[in-house]
């Protein structure tokens, strides 16, 4: 029996999920509110947000059989290159020598996935804006481009429609639904560093560049066309350097010259970009349940996180991977069972990564510029070198493994507690290399965490 | 200059607020989605939810000049009467001898307030269901009884439209708005104990009756017609005694005979009530900001709490009282200023009472039947007797004072910590009366809390 399944949202998660579902022989329709962006691009090309693909994402792409098509569109970043206020930079590797995260343009990536889903037979309906969902009837009301209304009743309905999910809104008003949304105090703005006049990268392309400045920061990720997409994170208000205090070009120039002078020199279009690009906000959402009556939330619709661990997309892809494993195991005769298993196993993990992403803003914007933090990282690196299995850095567990996020979170908490103790040693800066590393590790082992 | 102000929702909070605003000479319109329930009553009279009015509520009514009109409709309850499983009861006073909380029918109460608001010149528009609010334009779209649409643009807009506030929904989707909603694991059902055949109260009318049974409970409040309105709180699922496990009349009878046998004997209409009355859920919501662009959330719209501290309405009335104090102080030339001051001062207090209400379910349904809890209460009562200013029970600070909820909460936490220590004494059951009370109090004083 061929089964019919409807997805809301043709973004990264919806497209990858459609690929998985088509490969299971299902009849897949995707409804997307935007027009088909593949047809209207060409003018602003390359000017899109970058995503950082890491192991969980790759694993999901590999299972979907699309890894090799994606790889040519990515650039490996093997560490952070940190820019201090004087223009000096230094490099912090993310993991071992062969480990990296991969920069990829969101638009290009979405196109690859969408093309593949379509090639496999998924029907994509653009210009379908969800107006209303009746969860108990699984009935969706769309508003089309011409203002016309259209109704659809689904057998199985999946909301892969992002942070402001229409399906989740329906859950919120129609179910006994626990929901939490928090906008953080910071917003962001996309900026751009073009290739040099001779057509080269203006900075080291094998790193994610960070200008950490405490309460604010700038980051930059490389693009295939040898430009960088930059993101400026500032508080909306309440601080000297904040969006509310930027009135005109002079303010922008002043902030960049004061705090990001080396980047400023590489940004000929700074003022125009600053004016034309919107200031966007950052939201964290958590909710439960994710499923009701053969309808399911997935990806950002179920758990939108702030971008500071680079895991939002990877986590959404892992959602698809896990859901597909469950379909493999339980079949498609009871979607309620599959969806129920999915939310039960997955929820603790997405809670953990949401929390880690929130916590990581402090690390990215502040800690990484702190000498003590560097010593701490050195000690942790040495622990990992001496005991590669027993002490894995939290960042590696999250980024370079498929360990459950909740497990990584718990181990990370324990490691942090142990490291807090270690860092109390007043001589740690001098003798960090000759500490009793066996004794430090023993604390992990006796806790039963490993 | 006469100013125009629009309220959404003509419930208890909206009606009281309208009285305050009329008394300030403003032009007040209330839009209410229900029809005018004053015209359609008479048949189910007396069968409404009861509210428990306490000091904060009375203070607000007094300032609005309506206290004397309300008083005749109330019945004082000076304590809890606790029913054990064998039909024995005992009485726990809520406070000092002259202190009580007051039972009043929600419908009757709403009528008094609405009549008064109307008498003062407020215009009440019934059958106005909010379809959509545009916050930045302060534009409200209503759907009328006949299906017609109607638009209104407000100068000043206040959402007193309860736990599922339409204005709050608009805030949620249109602002950088932090929002949290949680449904607790329990639901409730209204039941009824009529007057005796001879026209008397079937139980002590000067108490709030509680049948605490750990994970569930029954409560009853007296009505003017000598009946009691009862509320059964059960988990929805996951326990033997839960709504999901009640399939038929026999299950209802079995639960009542097993756990509430003395109440069962007083409930001739139990089975019909159980069948006809809905099973309702309980929600806690917290959000911020409460105000934007001359629009404000107030009462349950800003902070819906579970009913276990009997403070939902009292807190909403206190909101009105505080808002009116701010209007008194700052005038009406800048509503944004008044609303901003209101949310800043009030938010920590509503957070505190939301948390206390959540915590109090455990006390009401479980602790109060525990011998250790009774000893604990005796020690606290004695502390209060010896040091009436320095040690006030948390319940009294919340219920019989106008101390800020956040302050009561903080003091309550400190007291709980001290009492946890005191209760560690293995002989406390025997020697509770001869403890070193001065030493116990000293812990409060040295903490700087008093």
From TrEMBL, chains A, B:
SUPFAM superfamilies from the UniProt entry: FAD/NAD(P)-binding domain
Any one biological process term the GO annotation gives: quinolinate biosynthetic process
Record Gene3D superfamilies: FAD/NAD(P)-binding domain (3.50.50.60)
Gene Ontology molecular function: any one: kynurenine 3-monooxygenase activity
Reactions accelerated catalytically: L-kynurenine + NADPH + O2 + H(+) = 3-hydroxy-L-kynurenine + NADP(+) + H2O
Short name of one Pfam family: FAD_binding_3
Top enzyme category: oxidoreductase
Pathway info: Cofactor biosynthesis; NAD(+) biosynthesis; quinolinate from L-kynurenine: step 1/3
Protein task: Catalyzes the hydroxylation of L-kynurenine (L-Kyn) to form 3-hydroxy-L-kynurenine (L-3OHKyn). Required for synthesis of quinolinic acid.
HAMAP family xrefs: Kynurenine_monooxygenase
Name assigned to this protein: Kynurenine 3-monooxygenase
Organism, as annotated: Cyclobacterium qasimii
Chain's gene name: kmo
């Amino acid at each position: 029996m061929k089964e019919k399944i409807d997805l809301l949202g043709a973004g990264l998660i919806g497209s990858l999920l459609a690929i998985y579902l088509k490969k299971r022989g299902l009849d897949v329709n995707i409804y997307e509110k935007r027009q088909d962006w593949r047809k209207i691009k060409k003018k602003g090309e390359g000017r899109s947000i970058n995503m950082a693909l890491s192991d969980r994402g790759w694993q999901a792409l590999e299972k979907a059989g699309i890894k090799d098509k994606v790889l040519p569109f990515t650039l490996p970043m093997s560490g952070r290159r940190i820019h201090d206020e004087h223009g000096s930079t230094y490099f912090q590797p993310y993991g071992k020598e062969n480990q990296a995260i991969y920069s990829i343009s969101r638009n290009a990536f979405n196109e690859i996935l969408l093309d593949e889903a379509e090639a496999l037979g998924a029907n994509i309906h653009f210009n379908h804006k969800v107006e209303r969902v009746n969860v108990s009837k699984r009935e969706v009301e769309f508003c089309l481009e011409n203002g016309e209304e259209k109704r659809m009743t689904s057998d199985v309905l999946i909301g892969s429609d992002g942070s402001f999910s229409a399906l989740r809104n329906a859950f919120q008003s129609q179910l006994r639904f626990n929901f939490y949304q928090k906008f953080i105090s910071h917003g962001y703005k996309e900026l751009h560093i073009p290739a040099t006049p001779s057509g080269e990268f203006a900075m080291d392309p094998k790193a994610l560049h960070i200008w950490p400045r405490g309460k604010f920061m700038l980051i930059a990720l490389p693009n295939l066309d040898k430009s960088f997409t930059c993101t400026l994170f500032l508080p909306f208000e309440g601080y000297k350097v904040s969006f509310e205090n930027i009135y005109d070009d002079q303010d922008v120039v002043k902030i960049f010259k004061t705090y990001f002078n080396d980047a400023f020199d590489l940004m000929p279009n700074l003022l125009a970009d600053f004016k034309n690009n919107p200031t966007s906000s950052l939201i964290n959402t958590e909710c439960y349940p994710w499923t009701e009556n053969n309808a399911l939330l997935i990806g950002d619709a179920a758990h939108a996180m702030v971008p500071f661990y680079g895991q939002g997309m990877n986590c959404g892809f892992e959602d698809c991977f896990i859901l597909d494993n469950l379909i493999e195991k339980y079949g498609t005769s009871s979607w309620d069972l599959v969806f129920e298993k999915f939310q039960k196993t997955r929820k603790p993990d997405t809670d953990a990564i949401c929390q880690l992403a929130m916590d990581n803003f402090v690390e990215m914007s502040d800690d990484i510029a702190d000498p003590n933090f560097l010593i701490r990282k050195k000690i942790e690196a040495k622990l990992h070198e001496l005991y590669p299995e027993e002490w894995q850095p939290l960042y590696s567990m999250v980024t370079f493994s498929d360990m459950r996020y909740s497990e990584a979170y718990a181990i990370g908490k324990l490691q942090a507690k142990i490291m807090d103790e270690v860092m109390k040693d007043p001589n740690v800066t001098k003798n960090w290399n000759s500490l009793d590393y066996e004794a430090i590790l023993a604390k992990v082992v006796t806790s039963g965490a490993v």
